[in-house]
Amino acid sequence: RSFDVNLQAVLHVSQIVARQMIAQGVAGAIVNVSSQASQRALRDHAVYCSTKSALDMLSKVMAMELGPHKIRVNTVNPTVVMTDMGRINWSDPQKSAAMINRIPLGKFAEVDDVVNSILFLLSDKSAMTTGSSLMVDGGFLVS
């Protein structure tokens, strides 16, 4: 199920969108939502980490294949995001402490942090950015 949701769904939707963009001669950008877990092994998250790593690579291949059509493809890779589900799953200080302590900024991401990163990658302000993963992790991966 995780592979279906995190990888296959993105592949199928991207194919539909890219075909339409190419047929209409539309330049633009596709941004996939990955995770910091694509870059770091996390205990008890083997399938999740694997699907997000696969999504990062899919995005790189898409960037290479769609670039000649002026379509950029990138990922945003957030840490835990404080959505309703994020708050439920990470509100216990004992559970969240180990993760928070590895984030130099000392907090989890808010929805706007991810949205603003996506908007940047969709905008012309990132016109030369493709095949990249933008970490929105408060520095988790540097710790």
TrEMBL record:
One of its GO terms (biological process) is xylulose metabolic process. This is DER reductase. PROSITE patterns: ADH_SHORT (PS00061). Keywords: NADP, Oxidoreductase. SUPFAM superfamilies: NAD(P)-binding Rossmann-fold domains. Pfam families: adh_short_C2. InterPro entries: L-xylulose/Carbonyl_redctase, NAD(P)-bd_dom_sf, Sc_DH/Rdtase_CS, SDR_fam. Signal peptide: none annotated. The keyword NADP applies. Gene3D superfamilies: NAD(P)-binding Rossmann-like Domain. Homotetramer. The gene is Der. Belongs to the short-chain dehydrogenases/reductases (SDR) family. The keyword Disulfide bond does not apply. One of its GO terms (molecular function) is L-xylulose reductase (NADPH) activity.
